[in-house]
């Protein structure tokens, strides 16, 4: 198993390493001011982001992103469960939800600045508003996809509504909820950067934009590299958490799709033995 994991990691790293090598070779021969070699980008990354800007820019960005993501997941699951249970409520709120869903979150930056000011509240609001929709829609689909026979049986045994929700409906909808939350995590990282482009005085997006305006190209690329590593690391942590929480679902689907058939341990009788058994 360990050898297989090492092989998978090696295969996954082949293409990124080749792309980096190809870019570095091209950048050194081209000599373009806007595309510095990897050595210069790496040196700037080590100087700026490994120590200096972590407390002043990276941690505030992560705090706002995690706060908006938590609000999106909590609000999306709560509202999605209500809409999944009640067709009447879903029909009544559908026009409003579709209107809000059609609004691009970056277009609401001026409104959020007027309502919440230039502090962290406006940025958290934008992140939560843009990331809530995958969680909400997947929760509605997951709740409506619960087996009706199991729900009817729970009602017939007079299981309370809150127990049906927490012990039957939400566990059955968890795989879809996690799928929506994983999509929402990527959206939250994108909106974290977008929210820091206007009305901000710190954050990764603010630093990248400031470097671009000041033609500090290595620092701009270093910030972009940090965002890519941040997205990769956040997705890896989320997948590990998802595997731990949904181990029952992964194990069940794995056995259902790839479990080999068990062969009988009883040996097949030879033709002579079978003939002798028939004679006796």
Automatic annotation (TrEMBL):
Leader peptide range in chain numbering: none
Keyword list, A-Z: Cell membrane, Membrane, Transmembrane, Transmembrane helix, Transport
Domain ABC transmembrane type-1: 58-238
Keyword Manganese listed: no
Coiled-coil portions: none
Lipid bilayer topology: Multi-pass membrane protein
Claim: Transport is one of the keywords in the record: yes
Protein name as catalogued: ABC transporter permease
Membrane-spanning segments: 65-85, 97-118, 124-143, 177-200, 220-241
InterPro entries in UniProt: MetI-like (IPR000515), MetI-like_sf (IPR035906)
Cited SUPFAM superfamilies: MetI-like (SSF161098)
Family: Belongs to the binding-protein-dependent transport system permease family.
Superkingdom: Bacteria
Pfam families reported in the protein's UniProt record: BPD_transp_1
Subcellular location: Cell membrane
Protein source organism: Pseudonocardia yunnanensis
Region (Disordered): 257-280
């Amino acid at each position: 198993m360990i050898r297989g994991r090492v092989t998978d990691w090696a295969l996954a790293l082949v293409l990124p390493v080749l792309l980096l090598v190809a870019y570095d070779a091209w950048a050194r021969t081209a000599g373009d001011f806007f595309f510095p070699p990897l050595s210069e980008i790496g040196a700037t990354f080590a100087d700026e982001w490994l120590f200096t800007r972590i407390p002043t820019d990276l941690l505030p960005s992560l705090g706002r992103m995690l706060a908006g993501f938590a609000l999106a997941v909590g609000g999306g699951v709560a509202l999605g469960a209500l809409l999944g249970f009640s067709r009447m409520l879903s029909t009544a709120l559908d026009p409003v939800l579709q209107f809000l869903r059609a609004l691009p979150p970056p277009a609401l930056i001026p409104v959020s600045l007027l309502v919440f000011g230039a502090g962290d509240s406006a940025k958290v609001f934008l992140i939560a508003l843009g990331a809530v929709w995958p969680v909400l829609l997947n929760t509605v689909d997951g709740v409506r996809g619960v087996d009706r026979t199991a729900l009817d049986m729970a009602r017939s045994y007079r299981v309370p509504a809150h127990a049906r929700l927490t012990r039957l409906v939400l566990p059955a909808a968890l795989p879809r909820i996690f799928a929506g939350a994983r999509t929402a995590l990527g959206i939250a990282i994108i909106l974290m950067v977008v929210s820091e482009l206007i009305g901000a005085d710190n954050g990764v997006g603010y630093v990248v934009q400031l470097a671009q305006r000041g033609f500090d190209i290595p620092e701009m690329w270093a910030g972009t590299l940090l965002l890519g590593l941040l997205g990769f690391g956040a997705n890896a942590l989320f997948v590990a958490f998802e595997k731990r929480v949904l181990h029952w679902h992964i194990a069940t689907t794995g056995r259902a799709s790839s479990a080999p058939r068990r062969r009988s341990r009883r040996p097949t009788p030879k033709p002579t033995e079978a003939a002798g058994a028939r004679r006796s």
